[in-house]
Amino acid sequence: MRAWCRPLLGLAAVLLASLALAQEPLEALPAEGFDHYTLALTWHPGFCESRSRPPRECREADLREGAERGFVLHGLWPSLPERFAERGINRRRWWQEGCFLETPRPDGSFCRAHPPLGLPAPLGEALDATMPGRASCLDRYQYAKHAACLALPEAAYFSASVALVERVNASAFSAFVTLNQGGEVGRNDLINAFEAAFGEGTGRALRLECRGRGNRLLTEVRIGIATERLTQFPAAESLVRQDRGRCATRVRIATFD
């Protein structure tokens, strides 16, 4: 048994049992002809360290509070919809432009170009805690690019996003990353920790994103989730394969000073 895994086995059982009892059931989202979502989760200290001009959520201590205790939300991205593929749009272009293919991206910042989302107050508070980038209007950008053209209701979309982040952060995988912040781990150890939390072979659903010199700084993880099995997440059968990222064999997990 790998040394990193021993202290996590009992923790995984406890966390997953707690997860099953504590989390409300996920509600299905309407799906307009796409087969999976990519749940993009930022490791906030790594993201902030990687930025030459850090945004508000990196500079202001109150916006960083709690972000080192788990992942934060970047976005929930539908895969290429059939109706776009039928128009000759390939996957690369969809990832680059998304719904801006139909509704061009406005000039200027999203804080100015788009009004605040009409979310219920409790959901807005939960999203503030889950997505520090909301201080820079990341929520408006993510919805406009990835969801607005797919008839995904704002409240349902972000409610599901928050619930998915909570489920990951209640897992032994998130605990492994959190416990190792300030140090280095093997890339394969991250994949193995994911499989220890979610099931053998599920590491194929995980994509690691790193930046910095030699791609050694962990900034994000991306998890593939089958559209029709979103409500079953994080069950192994809900996960779908992702392309491998480009992280180095040794990965540094940043922490806030």
UniProtKB/TrEMBL annotation:
<feature type="signal peptide">
    <location>
        <begin position="1"/>
        <end position="22"/>
    </location>
</feature>
<dbReference type="InterPro" id="IPR036430">
    <property type="entry name" value="RNase_T2-like_sf"/>
</dbReference>
<dbReference type="InterPro" id="IPR018188">
    <property type="entry name" value="RNase_T2_His_AS_1"/>
</dbReference>
<keyword id="KW-0732">Signal</keyword>
<comment type="similarity">
    <text>Belongs to the RNase T2 family.</text>
</comment>
<dbReference type="InterPro" id="IPR001568">
    <property type="entry name" value="RNase_T2-like"/>
</dbReference>
<protein>
    <submittedName>
        <fullName>Ribonuclease I</fullName>
    </submittedName>
</protein>
<dbReference type="Pfam" id="PF00445">
    <property type="entry name" value="Ribonuclease_T2"/>
</dbReference>
